[in-house]
Amino acid sequence: MKRKIEEFFMPWLREQKQYISPHIELAWQEPELRRMMSNENPHEPSPKVLEAINKYARIANRYPDQGLVVRSKIAEINGLDGPENVLLGNGTSEVYDMIWRSLIQPGEEVIQHTPCFGIYKLRCAVVGGKLVSVPMRYEDDQLLFDPDAIIQAITPKTKVIVIANPNNPTGNFMPPEAFVRIAETGVPFVIDEAYIEYAGQEMSQVGLIKRYKNVMVTMTLSKAYGLAGLRFGYLLADKDVIDLIAPTLIPWNVGTIPMWAALAALDDEESMRNKVDFNNHQVKYIEESLSNIPGLTIFHSYGNYILFDGQKAGKKGNDMVEFARKKGLIFRPQPEMYGSDGFFRLTIGLEEENRMAVEAIKEFITS
Ligand SMILES: Cc1ncc(COP(=O)(O)O)c(C=O)c1O
Hints:
Blueprint (H helix, E strand, L loop, with lengths): L10 H4 L7 H8 L4 E2 L11 H11 L10 H10 L8 E4 L2 H12 L5 E6 L4 H8 L3 E6 L1 E3 L2 E3 L2 H6 L5 E7 L11 H9 L4 E4 L3 H4 L8 H4 L3 E6 L12 E4 L2 H7 L10 H12 L1 H21 L7 E3 L5 E5 L7 H10 L2 E2 L1 E2 L9 E5 L3 H16 L1
Parallel strand pairs: 1-13, 3-4, 3-7, 7-8, 8-9
Antiparallel strand pairs: 2-10, 5-6, 9-10, 11-12, 12-15, 14-15
Helix pairs in contact: 3-12, 4-12, 5-6
């Protein structure tokens, strides 16, 4: 008797579905809505980046090379030896897929610190890994990293620990000494620095790579550089670690246009700095404008997003998101956590959008 088609497939994949971001789908379907939900940069690419896109679009008939020029530039920016320390991905989301595929067999464990970015979980599910979520501590209106709990969660099956620095959605940094403690365990330790440029490269833990072979750092051009739609991210690690992950690289995963546009963006530091300054002023404006609203907890952010909890004001995050939508803004709902259904997150937009967001939050929370 013939076997059913499902039986040929990995058993853990049968329970999974394609991930589709409903907020991004909505934003493309209704372009008049203001996109304050996916930590995109509100500014269009700089003229230098547009020039590179145009130039390389004309040779889009050609395959890209392995990216030695842009990898050398990335190594230089991050104080590493050279392109052998850099692996390119179609966004860091793909880099996570490569790391998990090269480390995890079915049943082996990934430790993440929640709440956090969703890709770690999604890619873990695809390789049949077991996700171990260690919650941050919610104390005195702050969400705090808990390195002791992370270290205690390590078992013989742990293959990787991942921490975002600063974390999304909480917006804060883990203290540097905690990174050292986790690195000392010897377990592969990935530090996700997608938003590092907003606080400055000096906050990066990239220096640990030279001291600990198990430390890896990921970065992206989707945030401060404002190129989310181009898909360009990268992994920084010891050469031997890069060599162990590199066989998972799908040849030509990063196209000619994103590769050279990325180089132009990395060379155009002034444009990135301007975007960062704008963002940081707007974070300050939003946080200050909402600081006196009774019952609204604001999580100070070092990224391009801010997390709020409206529970003490008796408000639900989902209702806030719906209210904002009626005002023409897409905010990001958050699942219930720590016994509160009041969480929601917004991404920094253009000046007018941030003003609209402040008004919407004030109106909803005080109503
Ligand atoms: C912590 C974190 N890492 C990585 C990414 C995604 O990066 P990419 O666009 O490079 O896949 C995001 C995007 O929201 C993020 O929040």
